[in-house]
Write a structure and sequence with these properties.
The protein is α+β, with helices and mostly antiparallel strands. It has two domains: 3-71, Arc Repressor Mutant, subunit A; 88-194, Arc Repressor Mutant, subunit A (Orthogonal Bundle). The protein is built from nine helices and seven strands; from the N terminus they run αααββααβααββααββ. A hairpin with a 7-residue loop joins β4 (129-134) and β5. α1 crosses α3 (34-48) and α5 (88-100) crosses α7. The N and C termini lie far apart (40 Å).
Length: 198
């Protein structure tokens, strides 16, 4: 694979990921040696230098972020009123994570029976779930669990406040029937909007 094409591929992966990607992950996905991945990342750092989007190195890899100098305008846009309630697939995914955490994406998809990339990314972006480390399973997939923001969002003091599943009930069966076992999303009465508005 040509280096220029590899650089474009990595840029695309970082754009859609919405979270840091590690060099070994990028090497695995692209089937390219890590030194070439590093070279592509260095090229991208130069390309994004002085632009509205920056490529930064963080603890868990590399991520595309907005330029700090643009923060005032980005925050103004993000603070604009908009629908903030979670969709049914996101609620379903969140319920699985809340009751089964820590859990891998593959395990979530096994329970839901469908690809869960979009709901997981939405929940990560809304800071309702977070990386809880890596599983010991083959490939060391990421484990997901709920955050402090999750507790605030649903008005819970701790995870013990989650509604108890009916005796003998299976989470998968409740999800299939659309009976998502989560409390009502909390509303900020002063702002008139969901507490997780960002």
């Amino acid at each position: 694979m040509e280096q220029e094409k590899l650089t474009r591929i990595i840029e695309s992966l970082l754009f859609v990921a919405g979270r840091p990607l590690e060099i070994d992950q990028l090497a695995l996905i692209t089937e390219v040696a890590e030194p070439r991945i590093r070279e592509a990342l260095e090229t991208l750092e130069k390309i994004f230098d002085g632009r509205g989007i920056n490529l930064i190195k963080v603890a868990h890899g590399y991520q595309l972020v907005t330029d700090p100098e643009c923060a005032e305008f980005v925050n103004k846009f993000l603070d604009a009123p908009r629908e903030t309630y979670l969709s049914a697939p996101s609620l379903e995914t969140l319920a699985i994570i809340a009751y089964k955490q820590p859990i891998t994406r593959a395990e979530i998809e096994q329970i839901r029976g469908v690809n869960s990339d979009s709901p997981v990314e939405t929940l990560m972006r809304r800071n309702l779930i977070e990386d809880k480390g890596k599983s010991d399973a083959l490939g060391r997939p990421m484990l997901y669990g709920t955050t402090e923001e999750f507790l605030k969002h649903f008005g819970l003091q701790d995870l013990n406040g989650l509604p108890a599943l009916p005796e003998g009930a299976m989470l998968t069966e409740m999800l299939r029937k659309g009976e998502v076992p989560l409390p009502q999303e909390q509303i900020d009465p002063e702002a008139g909007r969901d507490l997780n508005q960002t």
